[in-house]
Amino acid sequence: MKKVVTFGEIMLRLSPPGFKRFSQTDNFDAIYGGGESNVAVSLANYGVPSEFVTRLPQNDIGECALMELRKRGVDTNSIIRGGERLGIYFLETGAVSRGSKVIYDRAHSAMSTIQKGMVDWESILKDAGWFHWTGITPAISQGAADACLEAIQMANKLGVTVSTDLNYRKKLWNYGKEPGEVMPELVAGCDVILGNEEDAEKHFGLHPEGVDVTHGGSVDGKAYLSVLKQLMEMFPRAKKVITTLRGSISASHNTWAGVLYDGTTLFESSNTYDLTHIVDRVGGGDSFMGGLVYGLMSYEGDDQKALDFAVAASALKHTIKGDANLATIEEVEKLMSGDASGRVAR
User: Fold this and answer.
1) Residue 104 · residue 149 · CB < 8 Å
2) Directed axis angle between helix 179-187 and helix 197-204, to 10°?
3) Model confidence, pTM
4) For the chain, which domains are there?
5) pLDDT (tens digit, 9 = 90+) per residue, 4-45?
6) Ramachandran region of residue 117, left (φ > 0), alpha (ψ -120 to 50) or beta?
7) Which residue, among 75, 165, 78, 164, has the nearest Cα to 121 in the 3D structure?
């Protein structure tokens, strides 16, 4: 299996222990993670050769981020060094009717000051089978957007499959550009697009046609078909467009499913999972993307199975503390088969 390359920012995540509020804590749990690095960790955990590309500061905190990636089996040889600091985000974990809260501290990070031409994309992608990026990267800075476009164009030239998770982040688009000015050129080079109705609306002004996509805690997968069709019409290179379906009953209790559209058929996940006691929902979409890439590469031609793997993998991620999914293939396939008992393995 050819390697998968992902590109983006890894950050230091600082969280009050348990469900404490920021105002209650005098210490923070430290975890390293980020959208594209989380995908790389998922894939490495499934035995897929995975390489993460970013820019890290030449200091001890940058080294800690590197060690975390290496510990999980991710190739870090193409990471470039420089810049002032590692980006940070603070996470206050919500519960029941109190939602989680994120505060970013990533201005002037090493990744935000990356520039076009710093990364040798041809040498990195020449033996790759897949390249993945998210909408978080071009939201960071113009330099990050330019470097991402460079990578996509080289991947297209080399025949490498390109995927994106649109991942709209309102708090990040603050360098003078609107998403609609930046994202269309990047997404035009993608073969696989993951995004929900908010991503489609905020990036491209697309809306579901004549339907309400949510009904309390349940989500109607078919209601998303109009958005998926609009995305495929706007970006004709795309062969598959996908969305996750999260029904939010409370911060601690969600339902979880997904749909995939290949231009002809709408595939709906075989299972809708009832996530009744969420441990950590951060990285849920990244774990879905990691499962989807694995599924599409491993179950070639079986989009239903690939989708089911992605949904099951991300359901398991909600039981794991931290940004990255550490579930195994065996655990995912066990859940896919219908065994959600959680019995002790002895």
Assistant:
1) no
2) 110
3) 0.94
4) 3-336 (3.40.1190.20)
5) 999 999 999 999 998 999 999 999 999 999 999 999 999 999
6) left
7) 78
